[in-house]
Amino acid sequence: MKNMIYDAYKNKIPENDRQCTAQLAQEWEKSKPLVGKKVLLNCHITLSTLIIVDILQRAGAIEIDITATSDLVAHSNPVSTIKEAGLNYFEKGNIPVDKCNKYYDIVFDCGAGLLNKVTPQIGMVELTHTDPNLYKDIKFPVITVDNSETKKLETKYGTGDGLVRTLIYAAKNKITYSCNSITSFIKENKCNLDVLITIIQQITEQGKLFQDRKYMLFGYGKVGIGIASALKSAGVKPKDIYVVEVSSPAKKAADLKGYTTLLLNKEDKDSLQKIKDHLPNMYGLITATGVENMMAEYFTPDEIKHIPYIANMGTPDEFGKKFSDIAILNDRKLANFMLEYPTEVMYLDPIFTILLKAGDQLVTDKKLVTGLQNVATAIDTEVLGGWKSFHKETPWKHAEYKLKTNTLLGNLSLFSPPKMKPKESPNKDSEFTAKKLTSDQLPEIIC
What is the DSSP code string of 220-252? Predict the structure, then answer.
């Protein structure tokens, strides 16, 4: 059973990207801190999630059940692996009634999806941000890792990196689709070389995602800060990143980074109009406010439909059904979850580690009280320090994706003609206008 889970990810996720969890796996396989424990895991189910499942098995848990509540994403391949390994997978948080009341010793939760639905024997660990008021009447300990310094790695690097890689992925798909369309068109009709060159130039222009492009970002909290930083890393000039905020302190923080900032005041119609005046110039629009239906409150679909790349990076749908006909990446769900690796494992690695160690804290710390509390500072310091030692210079993972796309665009642009001097305007006999091109003469990169 253990080997099936491990084998599913070991060759797909480089160990260099999962050094914290690899070390924890070795330690827990020896110490067995969860021996005899029944565990329930609720989180996004992706290939990287199997790392958590693998370590729980190594730690000696006698039963590991897994689910993803309806607001979470579950990729089919890892779900199939979980089932084939003989583990219980419950669709959309539908936990059997007989397992809801003190059946599990520990529940690892995400977004309070199982709070007030499942009561654990020992306690619960919460992965992400939740409203503290939800835990006022809880009769067991709940440890959150969201307030930890370690968790900031995910928002500072991981989420922004995931958004940039999503944009690159979407652009590459557009380029591939366009190239395939060209191939089909030429097979059927043939065309002049200058027509093909014009189309290729349009494609390469379409693929230039960051340089001299303008992006509007709604929200400059933890997620927004990471997104803006990643866009800057990818090549967007700080002044071309338009940050929209309702909070004056957040706006000032964005000002200090050199971004163009806009304060949205519900009582001031002029502030909204200033934002709308900039929309026609945007190449991308990203929401990261965490407010459901936020865009529907202020904007219409017609005002943003011209923008090539639109993305929701908040957990709720920040656009709403009003925008159902607009091309929003991943159908208004978290945009980066259209990728096999929504967040690169090197950023999730420490988060998974502190999540699991918080579970161990539930078992060993007899001083825990009921209700919501932060993970132990010692655990936070240990995990963050370990990650920093493994990644002394933290690279952006999107850099390698960007390089591959730039290479693709470079190969396409090589097929464009040299720029003519004013006196060298092509005539009707020019090789660029007269020569016919068939599909077998296309560059390999297009075919």
Answer: -SHHHHHHHHHHHHHT--GGGEEEEES-HHHHH
What does the pLDDT read at residue 266?
83
Q: Which amino acid is at 347?
A: Y
Alpha-carbon gap, residue 142 to 116, rounded angstroms: 12
Of the given ranges (61-75, 183-197, 294-308), which has the lowest mean pLDDT? 183-197
Tell me the pTM: 0.73
Give exposure, 264-278, as e/b (b: 16+ Cβ within 10 Å). Answer: beeeeeeebeebeee
Closest CA relative to residue 64, chosen from 119, 103, 23: 103
Mean pLDDT, the chain, as a whole number?
86
pLDDT digits (tens, 9 = 90+) for 373-394: 999 999 999 999 999 998 876 6
CB-count exposure of residue 392 (10 Å: 0-12, 13-18, 19+): exposed
> Residue 59, SS3?
coil
* Torsion angle of the four alpha carbons 250, 251, 252, 258, in this order, in degrees rounded to the nearest 10: 120
Q: How is residue 46 written in tokens?
A: 């992706």
End-to-end CA distance of the chain: 43
CATH numbers and ranges of domains, the chain:
2-151+345-394 (3.40.50.1480), 155-338 (3.40.50.720)
Helix, strand and coil percent figures for the chain, each rounded to 5: 50, 15, 35
